[in-house]
Amino acid sequence: MITKSNAIRENILKCAKTEFMEKGFMDASMRTIAERAGYTTGMLYSRFADKDQIFCALVEEGGSILYDYFVDAQETFAAYEPERQKNDMHAYVDQKVDHMIDILYEHLDAFKLIVCKSAGSSYEKYIDKLVAIEMKHTTRYVELLRDMGQAVPQLREDSSHMISSALFNGMFEVVAMTCRKKMRQPISNSFRPFSTRAGIGLWGFPVNGRHSSKGCILHNG
Fold it and tell me: How far apart are the first and last CA of the chain?
């Protein structure tokens, strides 16, 4: 049963989402959100401390689901035996990327706000946090392969950041394109090969135990 209080909250969030979508977080106004919802500004502030709290309420479910899934995927893979990591990396990444893109589409409005409209909000650095996690675990994986005697070049931090950023920016471009109304259909099947080939070709990771000779942004060490 929807209570009056819940109905008011849902109305505020609905109107706030419209405001953020139209203007972005920086230019959105608590006053305008209140006007759109048909309430006084005082009423709005009695329920939300500021517009950042409203923004977080709109995106935190989808944002947390994706973030927690990604962290769990990284930690689960890191707990595998070294030989399994070396042999299963390709298939493992395929599966996890597919599901991450599914999450994007299941919470598309939230990720439109995060990707396209979050500048100035608590979620402004959301993608940067994912990139930092990817860099940490990529470094760990490279070190593991080198310890196993694989001919994997030493990883440079600037190269790691560049490619990790490119992978996530590519994934979130799916969302950005919907913001620009240029694409409405899922593209996970076309993004997935790019994501894994990037890891294999650019990092020089082995596939099923065989080393890729296409590494191009690493330095020998």
Answer: 63
The stretches of the chain forming alpha helices (DSSP H) are 4-27, 30-37, 41-47, 51-78, 82-106, 108-117, 126-147, 157-179, 188-197
Q: How far apart are CA 102 and CA 88, in angstroms?
A: 21
* pLDDT per residue as tens digits for the range 13-53: 999 999 999 999 999 999 999 999 999 999 999 999 999 99
Q: Which two tokens stand for residue 86?
A: 């070396």
DSSP string over 64-116: HHHHHHHHHHHHHHHTS-HHHHHHHHHHHHHHHHHHHHHHHHHTHHHHHHHHH
Report d(CA 54, CA 46) in Å as an integer: 12
Tokens for 80, please give them.
Answer: 């595998």
Is 124 in a helix, a strand, or coil?
Answer: coil
Q: Residue 17 contacts by C-beta under 8 Å, 6 or more apart in sequence?
A: 58, 109, 113
Polymer length in residues for the chain:
221
In this predicted model, what pLDDT tens digit does every residue of 130-174 receive, in sequence order? 999 999 999 999 899 999 998 888 878 888 898 889 888 888 988
Give the other-Cβ count within 10 Å of 61's Cβ.
11
The torsion angles phi and psi of 216, rounded to 5 degrees, stand at -140, -5
The interaxial angle of helices 51-78 and 4-27, nearest 10 deg, is 80
Helix-helix angle 82-106:188-197, to 10 degrees? 150
